[in-house]
Design goal:
322 residues; alpha/beta; Nucleotidyltransferase, domain 5; five-stranded mixed beta sheet; 39% helix; globular
Length: 322
């Protein structure tokens, strides 16, 4: 099924903005990625509109009208009032993003949380295609879960369903777990980087102009590279994170009985280091009957899952359907 006009979509993150044009069959026709402009509260809104103008296939004052609708994925909470709370964007407490973009683009605009967009993208064009019960666990700087049950998004009374980083995986509290949640404090990208930063062999140094050495920041990708080179400590860090994530996936399977659990997000790029342990741990600890039926896999869509989820919502807003 296709629509007469294509769809404009945006994946707004805390540091990166990706906009794209998608057709009604889920094919990405064009895209543009750049750092998010955080100079003012509304700078990201202006940035989305400017990128829309760049990607517009026609010119003139009504150029955006060539799109049937727009969909936007945001890194936070989309309230039923239409306002957005995005903690990683300064001043984004009650930003009426859909209304602001709709007024300027002059087309229907749908705004959704990135975790919900991810599971919709997977269910439309990814590992959850033709499935009605899908969970997308997004693991990167934070951890979130998009949950599709019976073909419907699980939202919760306050649009807070899927805050998987707050799953209580271990006893005891730390300053970080009180701020971001137990699972996120133990297994997200920054947790892996922090664990490695305590190891001198994974903390590279650089010389300053004065000749003194200073430590450089270690990222989860640095740890992954070290693990692939055979560093035993780096491998142990990923093994521990995989076990913790596996317990979280086991809980999600036991609670929601999905057909598919898709592991996505930035950390999925290092899945060769942790996926087997994650899957084994999850199947060992989840409800036994569910364990025999569920499929756990790594996303093949990567960051496109958010774009395609936003496109799916835009398609529905335009009156299209499969």
């Amino acid at each position: 099924m296709t629509v007469a006009r294509s769809l404009f979509v945006a994946d707004l993150g805390g540091t990166k903005l990706t906009c794209a044009v998608v057709d009604g069959a889920g094919k990405i026709l064009a895209r543009h990625t750049e750092r998010v402009d955080t100079s003012t509260t509304l700078a990201p809104v202006n940035q989305i509109c400017q990128t829309a103008a760049v990607l517009a296939p026609s010119k003139g004052p009504r150029r955006q009208s060539s799109w049937a609708a727009a969909g936007v994925a945001v890194p936070g909470l989309v309230r039923r009032t239409g306002t957005v709370w995005a903690p990683n964007l300064a001043g984004w407490d009650h930003v009426p993003l859909g209304r602001l973009l709709g007024k300027r683009l002059r087309i229907p605009v749908v705004v959704e949380s990135d975790r919900n967009a991810a599971v919709l993208g997977e269910a439309w064009q990814g590992a959850g295609r033709r499935k009605t019960d899908v969970i997308a666990l997004v693991v990167g700087t934070g951890i979130g879960a998009g949950i599709l049950s019976g073909g419907q998004l699980i939202r919760g009374a306050h649009e807070l369903s899927g805050c998987a980083g707050w799953m209580a995986i271990a006893e005891g509290e730390t300053e970080i777990s009180r701020r971001v949640g137990s699972l996120e404090a133990l297994a997200a990208g920054p947790a892996i980087a922090k664990a490695a930063s305590r190891l001198a062999m994974l903390t590279p140094k650089a010389r300053t102009a004065s000749g003194r050495s200073r430590k450089l920041l270690v990222s989860a990708l640095d740890v992954a590279e070290a693990a692939r080179r055979g560093n035993r400590q780096a491998k142990q860090i990923f093994h521990r994170a995989a076990h913790i994530l596996g317990l979280a996936v086991a809980n999600l399977i036991s609670m929601f009985d999905p057909e598919v659990v898709v592991i996505g997000g930035g950390l999925a790029g290092a899945s060769d280091l942790f996926f087997d342990t994650l899957r084994r741990t999850a199947l060992e600890h989840c409800q036994p009957l569910a364990a025999r039926r569920v499929r756990i896999c790594v996303s093949q869509l990567g960051p496109d899952a958010n774009l395609l989820g936003a496109a799916r919502l835009a398609l529905l807003a335009s009156g299209g359907s499969e």
